[in-house]
Write a structure and sequence with these properties.
Protein name: PEBP-like protein
Number of domains: 2
CATH architecture of the largest domain: Alpha-Beta Complex
Strand order of the largest sheet: 3-9-8-5-6-7
CATH class of the largest domain: Alpha Beta
Pfam families: PBP
Mean pLDDT: 80
Shape: globular
GO molecular function: peptidase inhibitor activity; phospholipid binding
Structural class: alpha+beta
CATH superfamily of the largest domain: PEBP-like
Radius of gyration: 22 Å
CATH topology of the largest domain: Phosphatidylethanolamine-binding Protein
Keywords: Signal
Strand content: 15-25%
Number of helices: 6
GO biological process, one term: regulation of proteolysis
Number of strands: 9
Low-confidence stretches: 1-6, 8-27, 227-258, 260-270
Helix content: 25-40%
Largest sheet: 6 strands, mixed
Length: about 270
């Protein structure tokens, strides 16, 4: 039998190599646009009661990924339509990644991004809805990464989802609009730092500023507990958090287990 002569430094190097390979990646990728994918998003909005219950129409011309970074693990979590996320997963301000069907127009446009809750304080009692969690303007699209970025202060700073303890999971909508030319001059008379976050109306805001219909959008569910499982009481059906978020975690676990197995075998042959 061959004699293995691994040094202690080689063993340590192998451990760090395995750890690096097993670390979850937060890199985002631009999704491909197809008529089917756009239709799927529109259908999801209708099934969740968002159309026509929250906005009158939704016919997107681009796909939107909303990517949260989990504070404890730095793992990227993508809020695709109907995803079930916890308050821990949505604690930080997300990154917005856009895949437009017309890349030339998107490269020359500015965008407005809004995140709001139509189920405040509960899906059965929406007296505070819509609650505005974030509103930003002046976003530019990167053809290389798909990421939307801006250099101006948010119109409404990000506040993370936080449904009350007794509530069913809430729907959280993220909509992207093409910014109108006179948006910057008009918006101060409609919304400013003293404007309450509660009782916001996205459709009325869009109409007043000439934004038109949403360019792209997505939505996710967040409940007051760690599982955030909807009970089917009017906020729409959604899959479990483990079904939607297990892919990256499973791959991570498999890589770690593989690395441990390799280290055990190496230790065996060295002994």
């Amino acid at each position: 039998m061959a004699i293995f002569t691994f040094s202690r430094s080689s063993l340590v190097l192998s451990f760090f190599l395995v750890a690096a390979l097993a670390r979850p990646s937060s890199k985002t990728q631009i999704r491909a646009i197809t008529n089917t994918s756009l239709t799927d998003v529109s259908t999801a909005f209708s099934k969740a009661g968002i159309v026509p219950g929250v906005i009158p129409v939704f016919k997107p011309t681009g796909l939107l990924d909303v990517v949260f970074t989990v504070p404890a693990t730095q793992q990227a979590v993508n809020a695709t339509p109907g995803t079930n996320l916890t308050t821990q997963q949505t604690a930080n301000e997300p990154q917005f990644v856009l895949a437009p069907s017309d890349t030339t127009s998107a490269s020359n446009a500015e965008f407005v991004v809004a995140l709001f809750d139509p189920d405040a304080p509960t899906p059965q009692n929406t007296t505070f809805a819509q609650f505005r969690h974030f509103l930003g303007a002046g976003y530019r699209w990167s053809a290389d990464t798909g990421v939307l970025t801006n250099t101006t202060a948010a119109l409404t700073e990000f506040v993370p989802p936080g449904p009350p303890p007794y509530s069913d999971p809430h729907r959280y909508l993220v909509l992207v609009y093409v910014q109108s030319e006179d948006f910057a001059s008009k918006v101060p008379s409609i919304l400013n730092a003293s404007t309450p976050r509660t009782n916001f109306n996205m459709t009325a805001f869009s109409d007043a500023l000439g934004l038109g219909a949403p360019f792209a959008g997505t939505f996710f569910f967040t409940g007051p507990d760690s599982t955030a499982t909807p009970s089917g009481s009017g906020s729409g059906a959604s899959p479990s958090a483990t079904q939607k978020g297990s892919g990256a975690v499973s791959l991570h676990s498999q890589l770690v287990v593989t690395g441990v197995f390799v280290l055990i075998l190496t230790t065996y042959f060295l002994s």
